[in-house]
Amino acid sequence: MATAGAVIVSAGVGKRMNAAVSKQYIPVGGKPVVVHALEAFERTASVDAVALVVGAGDEAYGRELVETYGLRKVVAVVSGGAERQHSVLRGLEALLERRPETAWALVHDGARPLVTPDVVERCLAAAAETGASVPGVPVKDTIKIADANGLVAGTPERSSLWAVQTPQAFRVDLLLEAHRRAAADGFLGTDDAMLVERLGVRVKIAEGDYRNIKVTTPDDLELAERLLGKTENMGERER
């Protein structure tokens, strides 16, 4: 595959965490949450460069993390915007400014510390089919659609439902067009694939990982700590 780069979005505040620092900087497994995510991309052979997007005023701290943990692929640390969507576009533009030859872009939430190189590679392979892909896992629970009064309005067929994760992979020109079209239309999506879908592009689902959780609440942080511990123990046994 042609040159691939990644945008790691780490500009959120994380109000549900009720912590003194942003959720992506909370230590888990001995390192800030976002560092685990960044290190996964460091280990991914297909990824050549990374742009890290941080909150306004956190740029110096972001650069400090890059230096402290020897993150050689990070070519830019930039501040995000008011919405995640704005942050992604800023990161993408910074990535392309440093690496204009980049043909494929991955967008990943910095609050997902358990992403693996295997998931990243599967997303890139799936994106080669249609120009866009997302990692997903089949939904285990029955999902109900509720109306404004909290009454069940429908029950979709579970076999067709997927819980979507990041990183999401796209052809760079397609992702840029999707973001710029959304900005012109004043549209805010819940993920980048939603913006690409608005262009009529079919998005391929790649095999995700149930362990690739997003750290949003204190319970998530505890789970991430346990999962990271298990992953490290497995690695030691394999060695």
From TrEMBL:
Belongs to the IspD/TarI cytidylyltransferase family. IspD subfamily. Catalyzes the formation of 4-diphosphocytidyl-2-C-methyl-D-erythritol from CTP and 2-C-methyl-D-erythritol 4-phosphate (MEP). It holds the Pfam family IspD. Its EC number is 2.7.7.60. SUPFAM superfamilies: Nucleotide-diphospho-sugar transferases. The record marks 158, 214 as: Positions MEP for the nucleophilic attack. This is 2-C-methyl-D-erythritol 4-phosphate cytidylyltransferase. It comes from the Bacteria. The lineage of its organism: Bacteria, Bacillati, Bacillota, Bacilli, Bacillales. The record marks 16, 23 as: Transition state stabilizer. GO terms for molecular function: 2-C-methyl-D-erythritol 4-phosphate cytidylyltransferase activity. The gene is ispD. One of its GO terms (biological process) is isopentenyl diphosphate biosynthetic process, methylerythritol 4-phosphate pathway. It catalyses: 2-C-methyl-D-erythritol 4-phosphate + CTP + H(+) = 4-CDP-2-C-methyl-D-erythritol + diphosphate. InterPro entries: IspD (IPR001228), IspD/TarI (IPR034683), IspD/TarI_cytidylyltransf_bact (IPR050088), Nucleotide-diphossugar_trans (IPR029044). Pathway: Isoprenoid biosynthesis; isopentenyl diphosphate biosynthesis via DXP pathway; isopentenyl diphosphate from 1-deoxy-D-xylulose 5-phosphate: step 2/6.
